[in-house]
């Protein structure tokens, strides 16, 4: 099953809205077939593994990281493919909460006389597909906030200089994070100050093109910005505040210029301080099949996510340096008055990368 989970990991960032699934077929103590969900979500892992196994699948045990689908979509159900291939037993790490499956796949296997075992490495399988599960259960993507700061939590000097706080190895790891997410999001201020490309620039992964998202309540992003100029080759979505284009004197032609470049512009409501409602943004992204969202700044956006308790995972790169209190904080203020209201996390890992340290956290439940 751990091999199936490792195979499933290959699909992260490439298979939404489908889950990333791995399948290993074992017969006589030997692996006779293996597969994982292919880019775009199809073919499914079970179909890939069965195709590789051929006749050797008869009598084999299938180890699948998520309950095989039982509904007819663009492809036939995987449970029927497993049954037709003569698989004798199926070990499943995790049930699929999708209403179209939700236990029906396992029931169909048992009905056909296939032995079923459930729950093997279930916790690891749930973490792997936390984004898919979040979208099914709550209608929004899993949110991972990435911060790259000095030891005292600063992302820039008081003058705004920010390149580079962390080293080259840490920045490469940041590109790897982009590669396993469906979308990358920044605030409008970060987009203007840092001019980020939000693409993946790692050898062998240049074909990864996560959806680029900008939260720009005032529609300040110019059509000459890289995020707009390359929108034709990498999908780009901009959220701005509702009703903006009905206000007198607003340059509505800027929206048209952005759309002419290929940027999609959507309007969402704001809070009392003209900050876009991030919960509405996430729901809109869930409706667009985004399951895994990486947020890369800035401080206001991070604060709004913490305030709304919408940060699910935290990846924090620490450089061995100190900037001081006049530097720019990684997280802006969000009105916390009592320690009981703090956003709390559980540390999952700590890994040295070059001279820097990256820590990963999951939101405490």
Spell out the helices and strands N to C. HEEHEHEHEHHEEHEHEHEHEHEHEEEE
Structural class: alpha/beta
Q: Largest beta sheet: what is the strand line-up?
A: 11-10-9-8-12-6-13-16-15
What is the C-alpha radius of gyration, as a whole number of Å?
23 Å
Q: What is the number of helices?
A: 12
Can you tell me the residue ranges where pLDDT is under 50 for at least 5 consecutive residues? none
What is the approximate shape? globular
Average pLDDT level: 92
Count of distinct strands: 16
End-to-end distance: 26 Å
* Biggest pleated sheet: 9 strands, mixed
- What is the beta-strand fraction? 15-25%
Helix content: 25-40%
Word description of this protein:
The protein is of the alpha/beta class. 27% of the residues lie in helices and 24% in strands. It contains 12 helices and 16 strands. It has helices at residues 2-9, 45-53, 78-84, 104-111, 122-128, 130-138, 168-179, 188-194, 226-229, 252-261, 278-287, 299-307, and strands at 22-27, 30-36, 61-64, 89-92, 115-118, 142-149, 154-156, 183-187, 211-215, 236-241, 264-268, 292-295, 313-318, 328-329, 345-353, 356-363. The strands form 3 sheets. Strands 11-10-9-8-12-6-13-16-15 form a 9-stranded mixed beta sheet. Strands 2-1-3-4-5 form a 5-stranded mixed beta sheet. α3 runs parallel beside α4 (104-111). The longest helix is centred in the middle third of the chain and has 12 residues, at 168-179.
